[in-house]
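Need residues for this backbone.
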């Protein structure tokens, strides 16, 4: 990725209708067409069944969505359905959330988008007092997840066409971790630009504007899978 483009990346919580629409289209490209994991959506859109509970961290170049990742804390998790007795696999005494739907545009997968998404996601999790995050990491991306500090547990889940490894990370484990330094360079710049142009429909109390939230207005639009 050219350095001039890298300096223009914005990482923030999705708040605008146009951002959600791009989320649904990137979700369709990634999770319906590329990874045969979900049933086909309508008109090139995939709306997750937990969309009304998801909070999306996104990466933008100007107004173009380059990547996204979602987090939610309401049980049961998607991973609860894939791995019975999930809590027996996890360290005890944590406030747990689930990370899902990591997607990066194909043209930007070799750059800092994924690490930047996780950096801002972890910062958001800290504001919500989550202490552990679980994820189903696609098998071919295990190097990335391990580099970020995720620990594998249990057997792979999913189908023959789309296999995932359950993993978790404790938020304490990322503090001072040099693997996040590369993504952190975008943090202050994103904060400044977000404060200069705050989301038009944002809410969220005293959180910095980059972490303010608005629920997706679309709710359930596809059947559970």
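Answer:
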């Amino acid at each position: 990725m050219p350095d001039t483009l890298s300096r223009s990346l914005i990482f923030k919580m999705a708040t605008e209708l146009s951002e959600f629409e791009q989320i649904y289209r990137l979700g369709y490209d990634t999770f319906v067409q590329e990874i045969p994991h979900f049933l086909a959506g309508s008109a090139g859109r995939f709306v997750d069944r937990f969309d009304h509970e998801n909070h999306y961290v996104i990466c933008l170049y100007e107004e173009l969505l380059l990547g996204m990742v979602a987090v939610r804390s309401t049980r049961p998790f998607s991973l609860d359905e894939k791995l019975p007795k999930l809590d027996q696999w996890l360290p005890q005494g944590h406030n747990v959330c689930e990370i899902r739907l990591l997607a990066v545009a194909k043209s930007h997968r070799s750059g800092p988008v994924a690490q930047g998404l996780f950096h801002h996601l972890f910062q958001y999790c800290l504001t919500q007092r989550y202490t552990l995050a679980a994820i189903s990491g696609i098998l071919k991306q295990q190097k990335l997840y391990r580099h970020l500090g995720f620990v594998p547990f249990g057997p792979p889940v999913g189908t023959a066409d789309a296999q995932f490894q359950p993993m978790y990370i404790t938020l304490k484990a990322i503090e001072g971790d040099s693997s996040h330094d590369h993504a952190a360079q975008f943090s202050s710049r994103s904060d400044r630009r977000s404060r200069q142009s705050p989301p038009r429909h944002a809410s969220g109390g005293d959180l910095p504007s980059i972490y303010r939230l608005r629920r997706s207005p679309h709710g359930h639009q596809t059947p559970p899978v």
